[in-house]
């Protein structure tokens, strides 16, 4: 199946987003190392000398450019195409780290890269074509259909249960609690981001959507979801090993986002069963490659997945390298900023 013009634009933007964001972590890391060498205090121990380091700000600017490209990508292409491509930023950072930071990329890491690329190619080839949207009110109609309202209601109930019942009891011993909250809210935030991005796209094309209250409502939902998502993602990163949080969060977030997109935008309507199975196989390949890449990162630090269901895993927050890994998960996996 060939790519439509809008899908092609979304694919290119998502690809550029991954390149910019993946490169930004390497640039920022070099800036952190340079700042630590000058000040003698590393970022993981409370140092802020990196704020005076131009290289760190260059990395920050590169990341912002990447996140803007990712935001715009959702206005052109379905979430089932854009979201899984976020894994490519991990490949970019891993490859650049191998050459620029002398961080060895193991054979399993190379295999993970190949799996991510192969899966992404399959997803791109079989990505569904979106129906043209001419007004934010059309998206509002999709968002208020019974099937999606049922999904939203289920998400809200599960989030409240996790926050008020499970989090106080086992939030610091079971990684699935905090990551579950992040993933559920993340799926709603991506749907709202796509709606808001489409509204802004139409506005820039001369069809003003800012006059509709639905546009501002979607903007409010984005703010609420992102704030909640960031809060509990930080809790997860502060409690558990980064290499444990990363693959679990990516799998849950991406799976729920695709499910929400299929329900709200009916991405699979009109597609044959072969294309759907191919997309799912590509998605599984990307997930598997991401987990493999993160497991090789973890092995370099001499840690393991023993912290999966306990808080006894090695803490990632005590050096600037893991500060960057935390940022990578926060910013990349939610596919928003």
Report on the structure:
With 337 residues, the chain is an all-alpha fold. 74% of the residues lie in helices and 0% in strands. It is built from twelve helices and no strands. The longest helix is centred in the first third of the chain and has 35 residues.
Task: Record the SSE blueprint.
Blueprint lengths: L4 H35 L14 H23 L2 H4 L5 H13 L6 H19 L10 H8 L2 H25 L4 H30 L8 H27 L2 H24 L7 H28 L19 H14 L4
Helix pairs in contact: 1-2, 1-4, 1-12, 2-8, 5-11, 7-8, 8-9, 8-10, 10-11, 10-12
Largest sheet: none
- Helices, by number, come to 12
Q: Spans with pLDDT under 50 lasting ≥5 residues?
A: 301-319, 333-337
Mean pLDDT: 82
The computed structural class is mainly alpha
Please tally the β strands and state the result. Answer: 0
Q: Indicate the overall shape.
A: globular
Whole-angstrom Rg = 20 Å
Q: State which percent range the strand residues make up.
A: under 5%
Percentage of helical residues? over 70%
> Can you write the helix and strand succession as a string?
HHHHHHHHHHHH
Distance between the ends: 30 Å
Can you give keywords for this protein?
single chain; 337 residues; mainly alpha
In short:
The protein has 337 residues and is an all-alpha fold. The protein has helices spanning 5-39, 54-76, 79-82, 88-100, 107-125, 136-143, 146-170, 175-204, 213-239, 242-265, 273-300, 320-333. The relative contact order is 0.16.
């Amino acid at each position: 199946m060939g790519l439509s013009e809008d899908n092609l634009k979304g694919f290119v933007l998502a690809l550029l987003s991954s390149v910019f964001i993946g490169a930004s972590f390497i640039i920022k890391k070099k800036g952190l190392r340079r700042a630590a060498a000058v000040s003698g205090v590393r970022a993981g121990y409370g140092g802020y000398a990196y704020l005076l380091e131009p290289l760190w700000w260059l990395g920050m600017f590169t990341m912002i450019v990447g996140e803007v490209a990712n935001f715009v990508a959702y206005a052109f292409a379905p979430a089932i195409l854009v979201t899984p491509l976020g894994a490519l930023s991990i490949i970019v950072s891993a490859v650049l780290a191998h050459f620029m930071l002398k961080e060895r990329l193991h054979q399993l890491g190379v295999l993970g890269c190949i799996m991510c690329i192969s899966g992404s190619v399959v997803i791109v080839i079989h990505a569904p074509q979106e129906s043209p949207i001419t007004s934010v009110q059309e998206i509002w109609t999709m968002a208020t259909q019974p099937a999606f309202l049922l999904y939203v209601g289920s998400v809200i109930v599960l989030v409240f249960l996790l926050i008020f019942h499970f989090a106080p009891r086992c939030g610091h011993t079971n990684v699935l609690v905090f990551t579950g909250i992040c993933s559920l809210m993340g799926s709603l935030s991506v749907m709202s981001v796509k709606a808001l991005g489409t509204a802004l796209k139409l506005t820039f094309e001369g069809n003003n959507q800012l006059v509709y209250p639905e546009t501002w409502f979607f903007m409010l939902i984005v703010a609420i979801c992102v704030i909640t998502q960031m809060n509990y993602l930080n809790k997860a990163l502060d409690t558990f090993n980064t290499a444990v949080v990363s693959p679990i969060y990516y799998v849950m977030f991406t799976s729920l986002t695709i499910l929400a997109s299929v329900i709200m935008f009916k991405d699979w309507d009109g597609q044959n069963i072969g294309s759907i199975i191919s997309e799912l196989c590509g998605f599984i390949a990307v997930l598997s490659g991401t987990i493999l890449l993160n497991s090789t990162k973890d092995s370099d630090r001499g840690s393991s997945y023993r912290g999966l269901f306990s808080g006894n895993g090695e803490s990632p927050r005590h050096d600037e390298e893991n500060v960057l890994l935390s940022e990578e998960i926060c910013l990349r996996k939610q596919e928003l900023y």
